[in-house]
Automatic annotation (TrEMBL), chain A:
Lineage: Bacteria, Bacillati, Bacillota, Clostridia, Eubacteriales
Organism: Anoxynatronum sibiricum
Domain ABC transmembrane type-1: 97-309
InterPro entries according to UniProt: BPD_transp_1_N, MetI-like, MetI-like_sf
Source organism superkingdom: Bacteria
Name used for this protein in its record: ABC transporter permease
SUPFAM superfamilies the record matches: MetI-like
UniProtKB/TrEMBL annotation, chain B:
Lineage, opening ranks: Bacteria, Bacillati, Bacillota, Clostridia, Eubacteriales
UniProt xrefs under Gene3D superfamilies: P-loop containing nucleotide triphosphate hydrolases
Keyword Amino-acid biosynthesis: no
Protein name (database record): ABC transporter ATP-binding protein
An MF annotation (GO) of this entry: ATP binding
InterPro entries per record: AAA+_ATPase, ABC_transp_ATP-bind, ABC_transporter-like_ATP-bd, ABC_transporter-like_CS, Oligopep_ABC_C, P-loop_NTPase
Organism: Anoxynatronum sibiricum
Automatic annotation (TrEMBL), chain D:
Protein name stated in the entry: ABC transporter ATP-binding protein
Organism of provenance: Anoxynatronum sibiricum
Principal location class: membrane
SUPFAM superfamilies in the record: P-loop containing nucleoside triphosphate hydrolases (SSF52540)
Lineage: Bacteria, Bacillati, Bacillota, Clostridia, Eubacteriales
PROSITE patterns in UniProt: ABC_TRANSPORTER_1, ABC_TRANSPORTER_2
Family membership noted in the UniProt record: Belongs to the ABC transporter superfamily.
TrEMBL record, chain E:
Protein family per UniProt: Belongs to the binding-protein-dependent transport system permease family.
This protein's name: ABC transporter permease
Superkingdom of origin: Bacteria
Location(s), subcellular: Cell membrane
Lineage of the species this protein comes from: Bacteria, Bacillati, Bacillota, Clostridia, Eubacteriales
InterPro entries, sorted: BP-dependent_transpt_permease, MetI-like, MetI-like_sf, OppC_N
Membrane topology: Multi-pass membrane protein
Origin species: Anoxynatronum sibiricum
Main location: membrane
Membrane-traversing stretches: 20-47, 89-115, 122-145, 151-169, 200-221, 257-281
Alphabetic keyword roster: Cell membrane, Membrane, Transmembrane, Transmembrane helix, Transport
Domain ABC transmembrane type-1: 87-278
PROSITE patterns linked: ABC_TM1
Length: 322, 338, 556, 321, 292
């Protein structure tokens, strides 16, 4: 049973990936400036270089052959060469992955935990001060443009209070006596960007958690559980949460796409050396191969995250295993 | 008497929903044989009750007659004619003549429509009214026929503003507005409070009598069936087990399944700690219908033949048929006694 | 162990490549002149000074140059430097025509090395800009290992040069780190570590500078200048730069172009120029940093031509209207927009670069100004790439962009030659006389004589106005003087860095006792003010909800 | 010996439209091993009565006054903690619609075992052992104990629910419409099972239903509720044969009797009253065929009509003559 | 008879109003939004604003004063007036984009849920695609391709934000589809479009409505973000554009809080108002939440 569910989800994901590939392919071909023009724009491009590109992209072939070539290159991990950096796209991307993963990962974890705690508190004490406070907090942070929040946080915590550095991932050029010192330095730099990103996310998580939990709390099985004589903490932990977690998982995964949007802003504000900024730079520089590569990577990771969420869902909810 | 509906060896199957992957990998798909070979006629001015446990295929049979589900095999004659559902006009004419009332009056009315719109919908869908005044008039007449008096006070309300009984009457009104010849009433009272049920039942009987309507009355409550219908058909796992005039079926039940159903019927009488002959197990599932007599695994009287040979409906008397090997056995026993 | 004296420079653009064959960026230029040495460099007065070559002679026919090279220079990996390295570098660049330096090598026909310290270069024609070629000399022992096929892709990820700084580390997206070269003929710099820190926005960069996280920075926005200067330890300047911002018309006079035919008419262009109050835009958008523009070659150089008062089209709305009136453009239907005799209105599309807020705002102001002359500008904003596409396909009326120039005028003059259409030319301008003069000026060795020709060229351009040069803009730089002293602007109105010389990097002195622990800066308070204000408002909102909620509860 | 005594219980819901007097002065008693049927139309306050006993009312519901004694303990006076300890151990419930009353993401066995662990201080393993026993008791295959609710059919879920209710050997089990929405056949199975278990385990059982006809086989006593009040209470015989209240009479007449004469059941006209603004006097008077002036004005008290038989009507037994 | 009809409608409205007015979030949301709507409609009439009219050097970045309530921007324009006219743009973008998104999301959701099978599979994969595809990057790319006029921004936001609605509508459609009144409609011979328009749409609409309001909030933030990243329409200075200019001109670091804070706060407030309303409607219209 379980394997079938998994299989179905994987097939669905593959279908989505296929859409993404087609879309990616089409999008970057209808974008102004086809690959050839991009190469030719380089004033020094030699005739051979143009020929090479033509062949590489199969521009002299029919569109489906071109798409095939595109797929073939993808499967061999060849995403082309960045116009901007003159390096294989994969190489450029790999160099920038870690900072983003670090920041997004931390922010997601923090936001999930905080959002769940706040959401649970709010739902359990519905109508109380705690509920109102956490609700207002979530709604207000949820309503803030990410970049604006980031700037405000810099103004408060870096400029006024001097607690954290304004930007970057490490103090630039610092050589660290040991690993620990470096981690400490990185941690100081991480605080504000992670805070910005998680604050924006917390809102949605809190609200989702609160709403699903309120839903769950009205379910008949909660009355049953209460009738069994359990106390509130046990009820929440053992009965309400496992049920309320189900929609949360989906939201968290879907949010990953949103978080990436947030990273573009956060990385710009905090000069964070990650993928979001790389992508924005690539966009501005019309570095199509790079842009396409990042786009693909991000989309794939969101799809994979969704797949993982679906699988987790299946694991947590016996009903969908079939 | 006029036959309104005639079913010949009707079969309805569903493909059990399963995962895409499995669909890809396996060629054969498990079939749900919801209705599995039913012959039946319903006559003008008659209420035929269809009784059986949950999952026995009652609703499916009802829907099949109205062509709301696809028919796998067999034939349906409506007023002695086969309806060609590919033909739009013919379909439309059929839809006007055959209507349905559903079990749940809370769910079967669109909560966002006004009563007048709900009742008038069949008229509109079939393009049968021209003017607003005519529309209202016909709706009022239908409401009145369904026992909602005075009709004006219901026109501009929403379903949630009505009680369950009133809602079911609205549903009936909407079924009546096209002047149908035949109505499938799928457990029309099972969701209603006992105190209201009687009114609806009375209405159905009245309609049958005053308009000569034919009803297929679906229920799992034998006593209701007995009270209002002319004939009763007992269904088990997609097949008719026993059919006959209602008194006969209740008072002289031939089929062990009918007897079991009768035995578990609650009666408002002090009968403390009566140990009822309750059939064990639940209604088995129609994907896997037992060989031989489909009832044999739960039958207290099952014998070898039941496991091997599927009994057909046979006449106990001209107005009473049952599908059970016991009848023959009894007959041979009687004969040998003679 | 002595603590290192580190200097951090904030930049908003990072090197596009560490290979001089690939890079085209200003920051690349700056880094290469620190890591590598050219034959001849520029001193603090922007005069030529010995680089790797200590001395040079030119033959009488002006076609052969002989350079005497230093004999005591070592590459950062301790390999000795010889004339073979120069020959290798020049030939590599000339053959492959790669990177931003190859252009300045144009005209060389042969490079020979009689011995390890002598280099002879022959040219086809006299080469006026021979000494202004800043091409970094690359180590032959490293680059000869690279296959020629890979020149346009080999990343040179760990450059080895002879320059005053050695390359340490490059972290894309973060910073680039150099360290002082102990043995350099420049004399060891006081800066032990030089770090170019990349900022994704100028706002945080300004904050960082004030907080002492960096010691210097460039590319600020004009309005930040004043605030930065209010900080006692910060010296923020608007440095004159060899560059300009222009309003460029699509001059592609061809049926396949979608250029606006009316814009090809000089009176229209002239009227537009008359109606633009450049000084006001400069004051408003650029905080007055820079100067009003006229001709193609920026005024700081020797070759700048200033139009005579008769030629000059200074801001004058009356003139603008008059010019149009005389050319037959009148507003007959009274909608405020003049029409050509055939009824076509003077309505054009001005394309702006979306991510350049200054240009966008300047464009908006211009649109407002030309309306006074009965001309309508519609505005669209696109990104650089899209604008580039439009330019190359001729699908644009006019746009605002900018150029940076060299000390030698050749590069910037080249932009307007016919041969550059489809390449560097963004106005698609073509004029035979101009093209001929361009070829001529390259070969005139006498500066004054050469200037005559260059002036003539500028006159032509000013009259035909494919560009309206709006301003000669400034580069906004700021340094924190509390940790490093000895900052010098080069030239006098110029910048501390990105000024074609590495003088400051070589001569800055650490302030005793300043340490690396950053200097406290003032000015946090005003930010605090706006934060508190903001939080206050949010609190009010929260309170509002809170109150309402409570009411709802008691209702229940 | 009395197991449960409910005295003048009033439970109101405070909602924005007003106060719903869902249970309004209800008293009854239940002896050990006895089964009481609580019957009435939808919305008359049956579930509310049950929830009041266990103090499981939703936040807007409040016990206004009255006492509920389980043995000698007044449940209404207990602290939240104390009542919580007594839940399930002393009073357990079988809820209306078992399909929703079981946690869908928890194994059924676990749902039974957790209650055992909580109330009987046994190891988790022992609790599972107990759960297995209970499964056998309710005639379910013990192997299916680690299944999830969705794998069970309606009847099986109801059995599992019963098993759960019996987990801590409660003194009192309240079954709130345990067979509604089940098939006749399965309903009969479940009722048989409940009856058998009650006798074997000697516990008190309150059986809540709106189907008067199913009580004859299982209950010793029946209380008929109407609009938040008990209108008649007595032994099953009393209610079926000697009923004195017109509502009981009408209710009985609304059921078809398959073994009796073929007679159409009779509807009760009108609709159940609005419990925010209940009718004056006798609450049934707007629907009563025998209502007189006094019924509109004066609320009838309980009149005794024999041993343990009482009714609230000014004209008890009026329909007889 | 129409008077009864009107009366019933009024009763329903009154009922809604009762729940609405006892809901703090709804009231605050409505008040804030009302305020901004009025400001957007009549504000520019009283305080007209022309983005092409610039101040002089002296009026650049002036702090709040009696002549300029909220000071001036880097081009000497009045910030208060700019805010008022920005409200129009921001609200317009939010609302129009939402309409597009609502239309797409509802159609796709209903069609997909109603027809099921292959249509559902295909539409849902497309929806999934729009759901998983990182939203901002996509919008950035699209905006870069198509250019940055307000209309294109509206279109882009609308085209990329419908997936969530589609999913919600689809699942609601699936459950509505199973309700007997749909079967009843089929039994009386209604065709697919009638069933979808007349029976399914009205029943999914409350959900769409609540969802839509939330989409509006997202759309406004999106516009702000796009503008901030330099992809806005400079000729129609929305709040996002103001923030963009403020940031580009270094207002945040140079202490010009009056340039930087007000547009941001306006965005926060308006988005908050929409979010409030969305959640409140959800609470009012979603019977499950209401039950407790
Ligand atoms: N659309 C469908 N797809 C698959 N199986 C179906 C479908 N509809 C009905 N079935 C199956 O067909 C069988 C008969 O169902 P049907 O609804 O006709 O029973 P019923 O006698 O009306 O039961 P009830 O008394 O519960 O209404 C059941 O096993 C049911 O699961
Ligand atoms: N949480 C609540 N808030 C407001 N009113 C309520 C609430 N719960 C129940 N009521 C009202 O209290 C009355 C009694 O409800 P209760 O659920 O006890 O009835 P019941 O007899 O169990 O009905 P049913 O047979 O439908 O289960 C009803 O009128 C109901 O509307
Ligand atoms: Mg059915
Ligand atoms: Mg109840």
């Amino acid at each position: 049973m379980k394997r079938q569910y998994l299989g179905k989800k994987i097939i669905q994901s593959l279908a989505t990936i296929f859409f993404v590939l087609v879309f990616n392919y089409v999008l970057f071909r209808i974008m102004p400036g086809n690959p050839l023009a991009m190469i030719m724009r380089n004033p020094r491009a030699s005739q051979e270089a143009i020929e090479r590109t033509r062949e590489l992209f199969g521009l002299n072939q029919s569109w489906y052959v071109q798409f095939g070539i595109y797929l073939k290159h993808l499967f061999t991990g060849d995403l082309g060469t960045s116009f901007l950096y003159r390096q294989p796209v994969t190489q450029v991307i790999v160099a920038r992955i870690m900072p983003t993963v670090l920041m997004v990962g931390l922010a997601q974890i923090l936001a999930t935990i905080a959002g769940m705690v706040l959401g649970v508190l709010a739902a359990w004490k519905r109508g109380s001060r705690i509920d109102i406070a956490s609700l207002s907090f979530s709604l207000v942070t949820y309503s803030m443009p990410t970049f604006w929040l980031g700037i405000i946080l810099i103004a408060v915590f870096s400029v006024s209070l001097r607690w954290f550095p304004t930007s970057g991932m490490l103090t630039p050029g610092q050589s660290f006596p040991n690993q620990l010192a470096m981690i400490k330095d990185a941690a100081r730099h991480l605080v504000l960007p992670v805070m910005t990103l998680s604050l924006v996310l917390i809102g949605e998580y809190t609200l989702t958690m609160r709403n699903t939990l309120l839903d769950v709390l009205t379910e008949d099985y909660m009355t049953t559980a209460r009738a069994k004589g359990f106390d509130d903490t046990y009820l929440i932990r053992k009965h309400a949460l496992p049920n309320a977690m189900l929609p949360m998982i989906t939201i968290i995964a879907i949010n990953l796409g949103l978080v990436i949007g947030g990273t573009i802003q956060v990385e710009t504000i905090f000069s964070w050396p990650g993928l979001g900024r790389l992508m924005f730079d690539a966009l501005k520089a019309r570095d199509y191969p790079l842009l396409q590569g990042i786009f693909l990577l991000i989309t794939l990771s969101v799809i994979v995250a969704n797949l993982i969420a679906d699988v987790t869902y299946g694991y947590l909810d016996p009903r969908v295993r079939e | 008497m006029d036959k309104v509906v005639e079913l010949k060896n009707l079969k309805v199957t569903f493909v059990e929903k399963q995962s895409f992957l499995k669909e890809l990998l396996t060629k054969e798909m498990p079939l749900v044989r919801a209705v599995d070979g039913v012959d039946l006629t319903i006559k003008k001015g008659e209420i035929l009750s269809l009784v059986g446990e949950s999952g026995s295929g009652k609703t499916t049979l009802g829907k099949a007659i109205l062509h709301l589900v696809d028919i796998a095999e067999g034939e349906i004659l409506f007023q002695n004619q086969a309806v060609n559902f590919k033909h739009k006009k013919e379909t439309r004419r059929f839809r006007q003549k055959a209507q349905v009332i559903f079990q749940d009056p809370y769910q079967s009315l669109n909560p966002r429509n006004l009563i007048i719109d709900i009742v008038a919908e069949p008229l509109e869908v079939n393009g049968l009214v021209k003017t607003e005044a005519e529309r209202k008039e016909r709706v009022m007449k239908a409401l009145q026929d369904a026992g909602l008096d005075p009709p004006e006070s219901y026109l501009y309300r929403y379903p949630y503003e009505l009680s369950g009984g009133q809602r079911q009457r609205v549903a009936i009104a909407s079924a009546l507005i096209l002047d149908p010849a035949f109505i499938v009433a799928d457990e029309p009272v099972s969701m209603l409070d006992v105190s209201i049920r009687a009114g609806i039942l009375k209405l159905l009987v009245e309609l049958k009598e005053s308009k000569g309507l034919a009803f297929l009355f679906i229920t799992h409550d034998l006593s209701l069936a007995w009270l209002i219908s002319d004939r009763i058909a007992i269904m088990y796992l997609g097949k008719i087990m026993e059919i006959g005039e209602s008194d006969t079926v209740i008072k002289q039940a031939e089929h062990p399944y009918t007897q079991a159903l009768l035995d578990v019927m609650p009666i408002p009488e002090v009968n403390r700690h009566r140990q009822r002959k309750v059939l064990s197990g639940e209604s088995p599932n129609p994907t896997n219908i037992p060989a031989g007599c489909r009832f044999h695994p739960r039958c207290p009287h099952a014998f070898d033949r039941c496991r091997e040979e599927e009994p057909v409906l046979q006449a106990v008397n001209p107005h009473h048929l049952a599908a059970c090997h016991l009848i023959e056995k009894k007959k041979t026993q009687e004969k040998s006694h003679d | 162990q002595e603590p290192l004296n580190t200097m951090r420079v904030g930049v908003t653009v990072e090197v596009d490549s560490l290979s001089p064959l690939i890079s085209y960026s200003q920051i690349g230029y700056e880094v290469f002149q620190l890591v590598y040495d050219p034959l001849v460099m520029l001193d603090e007065n922007l005069e030529t000074a010995p680089g790797l070559a200590t001395d040079w002679q030119i033959s009488d026919d002006q076609l052969e140059w002989t350079f005497t090279l230093r004999d005591d220079v070592k590459w950062h990996d301790d390999t000795p430097f010889t004339s073979a390295d120069v020959k290798f570098t020049y030939e590599l660049l000339m053959e492959n025509e790669l990177g931003m330096y190859s252009g300045s090598l144009g005209g060389m026909t042969e490079v020979s090395t009689p011995d390890e310290t002598t280099l002879v270069i022959r040219t086809e024609l006299p080469k006026a800009n021979m000494l202004l070629n800043a091409c970094p000399i690359l180590p032959a022992h490293i680059w000869s290992e690279v296959s020629p096929d890979e020149y346009d892709a080999w990343p040179n990820s760990s450059p080895v040069g002879t320059g005053p700084f050695r390359f340490e580390e490059f972290r894309p997206g973060e910073y680039l780190k150099l360290a002082a070269n102990e043995e350099t003929f420049h004399g060891r710099p006081q800066i032990d570590e030089l770090i170019f820190v990349l900022y994704a926005n100028t706002d945080t960069m300004a904050q960082s500078l004030r907080l002492g996280e960096i010691d210097a920075a460039t590319n600020f926005s004009p309005s930040q200048l004043e605030v930065l200067n209010s900080d006692a330890s910060i010296d923020a300047i608007a440095a004159v730069e060899l560059g300009f911002v222009e309003l460029s018309f699509n001059s592609w006079d061809d049926p396949s172009s979608t250029s606006h035919p009316l814009l090809l008419e000089p009176p229209v262009r002239h009227a537009i120029e008359y109606s633009i109050d450049k000084q006001r835009i400069l004051d408003m958008v650029y905080s007055g940093q820079g100067s009003v523009g006229t001709t193609l070659v920026p005024p700081e150089g020797f070759y700048h031509y200033e139009p005579t008062s008769a030629e000059l089209r200074d801001y004058d709305v009356l003139m603008a209207n008059q010019v149009l009136e005389e050319a037959g453009f009148a507003d007959l239907n009274g909608d405020g927009i003049r029409q050509a005799p055939d009824g076509t209105p003077l309505e054009f599309l001005l394309t702006l670069r979306a991510d350049n807020a200054n240009e966008v705002q300047a464009g908006q102001m211009i649109a407002g100004m030309v309306a006074e002359a009965g001309i309508k500008f519609n505005i669209e904003t696109v990104d650089d790439g899209a604008l580039m596409d439009k330019i190359y396909s001729g699908d644009v009326d006019m746009f605002i962009w900018g150029w940076g120039a060299d000390l030698d005028p050749t590069t910037i003059l080249n932009v307007m030659t016919t041969s550059q259409i489809g390449n560097m030319s963004d106005s698609n301008y073509s004029n035979e006389t101009y093209d001929r003069l361009f070829m001529e000026q390259q070969t005139i060795m006498d500066p004054d004589e050469r200037r005559e020709v260059v002036w003539k060229m500028q006159q032509i351009l000013y009259e035909e106005a494919p560009y309206i040069i709006l301003f000669y803009d400034n580069s906004l730089q700021a340094v924190n003087t509390s940790r490093w002293t000895g900052w010098r602007r080069i030239p006098d109105e110029g910048g501390y860095f990105f000024n074609l010389t590495n003088y400051n990097y070589l001569n800055l002195q650490p302030v005793a006792g300043a340490g690396d622990a950053t200097v406290p800066a003032t000015g946090g308070s005003d930010s605090l003010g706006h934060i508190i204000g903001g939080l206050g408002i949010m609190a009010v909102v929260a309170f509002f909800v809170f109150r309402k909620k409570k009411a709802a509860n008691s209702y229940r | 010996m009395e197991l449960l005594r409910v005295e003048n219980l009033k439970t109101y819901f405070h909602i924005s439209q007003g106060i719903v007097k869902a249970v309004d002065d209800v008293s009854f008693t239940l002896a050990y091993g006895q089964c009481l049927g609580l019957v009435g139309e939808s919305g008359c306050g049956k579930t509310t009565t049950a929830l009041s006993i266990n103090r499981l009312l939703p936040p807007e519901g409040k016990i206004q006054s009255g006492n509920i004694y389980l043995e000698a303990v007044n449940l209404t006076a207990l602290s939240d903690d104390e009542i919580r300890k007594r839940r399930w151990k002393e009073i357990s419930m079988i809820f209306q619609g078992a399909m929703n009353a079981l946690n869908p993401v928890m194994k059924i066995g676990e749902q039974i075992a957790e209650a055992v662990v909580l109330h009987q201080q046994v190891s988790h393993q022992q609790a599972w052992g107990r759960a297995k026993e209970l499964f056998e008791l309710v005639e379910l295959e013990p192997d299916r104990i680690s299944g999830y609710p969705h794998e069970f059919s309606g009847g099986m879920k109801q059995r599992a629910m019963i098993a759960m209710a019996l987990a801590c050997d409660p003194k009192l089990v309240i079954g709130d419409e345990p067979t509604t929405a089940l098939d006749v056949m399965v309903q009969a199975q479940i009722l048989n099972l409940l009856d058998k278990l009650r006798q074997n385990l000697n516990m008190g059982l309150i059986l809540i239903t709106h189907d008067l006809s199913i009580l004859g086989e299982t209950c010793d006593r029946i209380a008929v509720m109407y609009a938040g009040k008990i209108v008649e209470m007595g032994s099953t015989e009393d209610i079926y044969h000697e009923h004195m209240h017109p509502y009981t009479y009408r209710l009985l007449r609304a059921f078809p009797h398959i073994r009796g004469p073929k007679q159409m059941p009779e509807p009760i006209m009108g609709t159940p009253p609005d419990l925010i603004r209940p009718p004056s006097g006798c609450r049934f008077h707007p629907r009563c065929d025998y209502a007189k002036e006094i019924c509109r004005e004066e609320e009838p008290g309980m009149t005794a009509a024999g041993d343990g038989h009482a009714y609230a009507c000014h004209f008890g037994g009026a329909f007889n003559g | 008879m129409s008077s009864i009809y009107r009366e019933m409608r009024l009763k329903k409205l009154a009922h809604f109003w009762t729940s609405f007015k006892s809901n703090g979030m709804a009231i605050s949301g409505a008040l804030i939004l009302g305020f901004f709507t009025v400001a957007a409609i009549i504000g520019p009439l009283i305080f007209p604003y022309n983005p092409m009219e610039f101040g002089t050097v002296e009026t650049i970045l002036q702090p709040p004063s009696t002549t300029h309530f909220l000071g001036t921007d880097n081009l000497g324009r009045d910030i208060f007036r700019n805010l008022l006219s920005g409200a129009r743009i921001s609200l317009m973008v939010g609302i129009l984009a939402t309409l597009i998104s609502m239309f797409l999301g509802t159609s796709v959701g209903i069609i997909s849920g109603y027809f099921g099978k292959a249509i559902d599979s295909i539409l849902m994969r497309v929806t999934d695609f729009f759901l998983v595809i990182p939203w901002l990057p996509l919008v950035l790319v699209l905006a870069a391709i198509l250019g940055s006029s307000v209309w294109i921004i509206i279109l882009v936001i609308g085209l990329t934000s419908w997936a969530g609605t589609a999913r919600v509508v689809r699942s609601q459609t699936l459950s509505v589809k199973e309700r007997p009144f749909i079967e009843r409609a089929r039994a009386i011979g209604a065709d697919h479009s009638t069933i979808m328009m007349r029976h399914i749409l009205p029943n999914v609409f409350p959900l769409v409505f609540a969802n839509t309001i939330l989409v509006t909030a997202v759309a406004i933030i999106s516009e702000t973000t796009l503008s901030f990243l330099g992809l806005g329409d400079p000729t129609r200075p929305s709040w996002g554009m103001m923030l963009h200019y403020a940031f580009q001109s270094g207002a945040a670091s140079s202490g010009a809080y009056w340039f930087f804070l007000p547009p941001g706060l306006c965005v926060v407030l308006v988005v908050l108002a929409f979010t409030f309303l969305g959640y409140a409607f959800d609470e009012i219209l979603n019977p499950k939440l209401r039950r407790r």
